[in-house]
Design goal:
6 helices, Cytochrome Bc1 Complex, Chain D, domain 2, mainly alpha
Amino acid sequence: MKVFSTLFIILNIICFSNYSSVLAASIEEGEKIFTANCAACHAGGNNLIMPDKTLKIEALDAYGMSNIEAITTQVTNGKNAMPSFKGRLNNEDIDNVANYVLSQSKAGWLDED
């Protein structure tokens, strides 16, 4: 049992030691994708087309979009004036941009203002 516990701990350390670097990489890639595909309408977390539908955390909370799944669905399928990116971005790119948007919204889009 002691050997199993030790192996379990070592395995967890190995598996989760790179978690923050993987997350950072996906956010970094998400920023590149956002800049190339989204910033024309959403620079600084704003919304050029529908100004009340920003990417600020308060707005995302208000319309149930303050989670990765909701943002991923929006980017994939589009809605209202926002086009679908299903054929333009692959699933990994969409996940990366969703992670970037959520992280920036929680940080107040500090780098964008």
